[in-house]
Amino acid sequence: MYSRLIEIFEDEKLIEKIKKRLPYLFYLAELESSRAGTTGMEVGSLREKIIVALLIYKFGEENVETEIPITESEVDAKLFGEPLSIKTITGKGLGGVKLIWTVDSMKAKEFLENYSPHHDILLIQINWNDKGGFYYIPLSVQRRLFDRLGRYNYIRLPKPGTNPRGVEISKEALSQLVRDSDSRGISINWHREKIEYNVYRRWVDMWRED
Q1: For position 72, which CATH number holds?
Q2: Considering the entire predicted model, what is its pTM?
Q3: pLDDT digits over 141-181, tens only?
């Protein structure tokens, strides 16, 4: 099935804007969610909002649904009615993409036994001071690779005895997903510009309003 998401990767003007603006906006998100030099978990929600805003910019607010029920845990937005999952990872390697966040080993095993791909994925690989990427992985690619590798090679459970935070797509599977001929990608140079940013300024300005 054709997804409108592919249009992002065929729009040369938008591609250049993503290369230039995405590192800046994601750095702002880090500054917004940092305290005493440590980035908080809320940075993930801010990054997700930045990507959803990109979809609204490209396709129009009327075509992007953001009010997603909490029961649809893997869905972050809907584009033209089609569910979409937004994933971000940090680092040089392709790994650590969570399919579900849980600390319960039984729930993790249950998820493994019942999982199958259901949604298109937009994946952003953040790699500061180096190359990363912005990828579109169609549902058809996920299903094809899931069937070829099998669930036990496609999915990585947390190691026993560790403090797990979730079930992941395996590094092998993720590497093949982004390199598939039907997936799309934009190479991004993750450069941090120096930003003078005060996280409280806008709230103080609002208090000053009559």
Answers
A1: 3.40.600.30
A2: 0.89
A3: 999 999 999 999 999 887 766 655 788 999 999 999 999 99
